[in-house]
């Protein structure tokens, strides 16, 4: 899941195994388009780029997703959990090169 979007989507392909999928579903990087993007060269070999728009979600699709997660034992745990007073630490962690995956900030 690529939540930053065009700002980091090219980099996301460097972290895929063959057959991997990058799903661009967010635009949190303040960029809205992929300038200088060549799908033949920028999409990793034997991998896929797809997208997701929350306006296309309904209850049936969400329930299908939850059933697939359960059936195939897909790990959906966050990489790290931070307290609300650690928001700065969470941002530093995500911007660093040692993070992988997403984090949760809890109250």
Word description of this protein:
By secondary structure, this protein is α/β, with parallel strands linked by helices. It has four helices and four strands. It has helices at residues 9-12, 39-42, 59-71, 87-95; strands at residues 21-24, 48-51, 80-83, 103-106. Strands 1-2 form a two-stranded parallel ribbon. Helix 4 links the parallel strand 3 and strand 4. The longest helix has 13 residues, at 59-71. The chain starts with 8 loop residues before the first helix and ends with a strand. The model has no long low-confidence stretch (mean pLDDT 89).
Task: Using brief descriptors, characterize the structure shown.
alpha/beta; two-stranded parallel ribbon
* Helix fraction by DSSP (H/I, runs of at least 4): 25-40%
Q: What portion of residues belong to β-strands?
A: 5-15%
**How is the largest sheet built, in terms of strand order?**
1-2
Structural class: alpha/beta
Radius of gyration: 16 Å
Helix segment tally: 4
Query: What summary fits the major beta sheet?
Result: 2 strands, parallel
Number of strands: 4
Mean pLDDT: 89
Shape: globular
| Cα-to-Cα separation, first versus last residue | 24 Å
Give the helices and strands as they follow along the chain.
Answer: HEHEHEHE
What low-confidence regions span 5 or more consecutive residues with pLDDT below 50? none
Précis, in short:
The chain is α/β, with parallel strands linked by helices. The chain has 4 helices and 4 strands; from the N terminus they run αβαβαβαβ. The strands form 2 sheets. The chain has a two-stranded parallel ribbon. A two-stranded parallel sheet has the order 3-4.
